[in-house]
Design brief:
This protein has 170 residues and is of the alpha+beta class. It has two domains: 33 residues, no CATH class; 127 residues, no CATH class. The strands form two sheets. Strands 5, 6, 7, 8 and 9 form a five-stranded antiparallel beta sheet that branches. β5 and β6 form a beta hairpin. The radius of gyration is 22 Å and the shape is flat.
């Protein structure tokens, strides 16, 4: 009895091609999941390293968390390898006839954790004066309100941690 491996190799190649095609269409779907007005806004911000779109159950607001790497081509420090040139922001968009930018807030190297109706929970990570470039160490859990159609930092600070490299001997 003679076995031929050629059909099996051909089947494997077809499966790999199908997996790649499905993966590519998923990536296109994910990219198309960002409304066009918001995608245009992000493109104007600089070399966006990553972004996440948050929708609440109220369909008239979207929060976008995005990070810009100024070391990338098109960035203010293109070609550098300084981690301090990466920073993140949170932006609010309101839906009227189309999605319009309301305002944004700086998060350092932080991120958005959650967006519910009228409230954004985020983490801000920034540098203490003694921090090396690799390691921002001041972490704050922030709350932003969105009820008035703008992103407003709430005086409610959930938590704050002093920088790991900061000295408390003043």
């Amino acid at each position: 009895m003679q076995h031929s491996f050629a059909p099996n190799l051909l089947s494997i190649a077809k499966l790999l091609f199908l997996a790649i095609a499905v993966g590519a269409s998923s990536a296109v779907f994910a990219a198309n999941n960002t409304p066009q007005e918001i995608a245009r806004y992000l493109k104007k911000q600089g070399p966006v390293l990553e972004h996440r779109v948050f929708r609440s159950s109220a369909s008239n607001q979207i929060v976008v968390s995005f990070c810009i790497d100024e070391n990338f081509k098109g960035g203010a420090n293109a070609g550098a390898s300084n981690p301090a040139n990466v920073y993140c922001k949170v932006a609010l968009f309101n839906k009227k006839e189309k999605w319009t930018f309301a305002n944004q807030a700086f998060l350092g190297q932080g991120t958005v954790r959650e967006f519910a109706i009228d409230k954004v929970l985020a983490e801000s990570v920034t540098y203490a004066p003694e921090d090396p470039l690799c390691c921002p160490s001041i972490k704050k859990e922030l709350v932003f309100k969105t009820g008035g159609g703008t992103l407003v930092a709430s005086p409610q600070l959930l938590s704050a941690k002093q920088g790991a490299n900061s000295r408390d001997d003043k």
